[in-house]
């Protein structure tokens, strides 16, 4: 509902989002679950039907190997929002925020909106374009996090900056842990199978 406004007028969108108190479950059902489907479905289709070019050769994944990978990708995005939301809520006392879990999940879920929308690029994988837009989207998500933390979590701007920095650090560590988990899952049979 506020997702597109967040891309165009982020400051006023954050103020509107902050004024609508919602439970974590409501945010997950209305925002996270549907939007997280976009990258999962987009990349599944793109990786199995369209493919991408590596060294002049078209590479695709078999649908059988891609299905568990992109199902896990979807689950990881949803659990990632929940985990980071929990961490935002857990750190709230340190930054003197009267946090609720719903407010914390709202901050993370809406911060990830550009990432979810950029997942539509997966329908037609083009490596250089995906990297260029992916880096831009990552930077915009970081901007949204730093802009929205003080507004949504009701803390002073200087505390909001420190709070957002702590959230960003937790997100980076979580991402590295997810990469490690991916390698382990590949060893247990969720590895991709390529077709040329």
Question: What would your notes on this structure say?
Answer:
The protein is mainly α. It has one domain. Helices cover 76% and strands 5% of the residues. It contains 8 helices and 3 strands. The protein has helices spanning 3-8, 10-19, 24-50, 63-91, 101-111, 113-118, 127-152, 157-190, and strands at residues 52-54, 57-61, 194-195. The chain has a 3-stranded antiparallel beta sheet. Strand 1 (52-54) and strand 2 (57-61) form a beta hairpin. Helix 3 packs parallel to helix 5 (101-111). The mean pLDDT is 93.
Task: Give the overall pLDDT as a whole number.
Answer: 93
What series of H and E elements makes up the topology? HHHEEHHHHHE
Counting structural domains, the number is: 1
What is the 3D shape? elongated
Largest beta-sheet details: 3 strands, antiparallel
Note the total helix count. 8
Low-pLDDT runs: none
Question: What portion of the residues fall into strands of 2 or more residues?
Answer: 5-15%
Q: How many beta-strand runs? A: 3
Oligomer: single chain
Terminal-residue CA separation: 41 Å
Radius of gyration: 18 Å
What strand line-up does the widest sheet have?
Answer: 1-2-3
């Amino acid at each position: 509902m506020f997702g597109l406004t967040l891309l165009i007028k982020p400051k006023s969108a954050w103020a509107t989002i902050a004024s609508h108190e919602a439970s974590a479950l409501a945010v997950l059902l209305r925002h996270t679950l549907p939007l997280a489907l976009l990258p999962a479905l987009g990349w599944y289709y793109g990786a199995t039907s369209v493919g991408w070019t590596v060294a002049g050769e078209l590479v695709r994944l078999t649908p059988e190997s891609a299905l568990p990978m992109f199902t896990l990708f979807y689950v990881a995005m949803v659990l990632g929002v929940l985990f980071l939301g929990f961490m935002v809520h857990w750190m709230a006392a340190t930054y003197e925020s009267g946090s609720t879990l719903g407010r914390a999940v709202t901050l993370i879920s809406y911060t990830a909106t550009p990432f979810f929308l950029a997942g539509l690029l997966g329908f037609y994988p083009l490596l250089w374009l995906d990297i260029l837009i992916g880096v831009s989207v990552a930077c915009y998500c970081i901007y949204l996090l730093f802009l929205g933390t003080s507004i949504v979590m009701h803390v002073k701007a200087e505390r909001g900056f420190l709070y957002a920095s702590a959230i960003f650090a937790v997100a980076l560590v979580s991402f590295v842990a997810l990469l490690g988990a991916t390698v382990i899952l590949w060893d247990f049979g969720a590895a991709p199978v390529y077709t040329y």
